[in-house]
Amino acid sequence: VGDPESYEGDVVVPAVRARSGERASCCGCLRRLSSYAPVSLSCELQFKLVNVDPATGEVDQGRKGFDEDFPLEELELSTADFMAKLGVADFRRAWDALGSDGEVLEKFALQFRKMEEAVAAVVELLGMQACDGTEKIAPEVLQAKKPHVLHLSGVFLGNMQVLARAQLQLDEAVGGGVVLKVAVRSKDRDLSQLVAECIR
Which pTM value belongs to this model? Predict the structure, then answer.
């Protein structure tokens, strides 16, 4: 795995062996070098291919084997990958307690035709926990095309509490898509901005 500007490989725990037709696990640890901005990491599997005795399954000791490299799909890391979903007992009180000093407001036009799909996408993109049952949209909201408010809570890496209030509404003016207005609060305005930009 590699991206010299964002991450470097730190520790690798290799699989001892991977027999043909069987699964094996290996692990890698990355060291973050810069911000939490989204990044695509190139990955490859490095292994030694050796012959085995088909009767016993033992490695042929007469041959050293061949070093092989196999390219894998790119690993996509987003800002939301550093967010833990953690609800709060009283969203309104937690929202007021954070205050507005670290608040960021953003507006987006989402290309969804259905409110349910837009709500699910916002929850996934931010990587946060929906609170107060706000991930469910009331039938009367859908029928009247009224705004729906979504409350979200999470803890960012470093034990930083983050809350978001997202208002979604179907809007014919954006081609039948959904307009999203989101307010993100934390104790660090830069972090709030980073989380808000997960929508992009």
Answer: 0.79
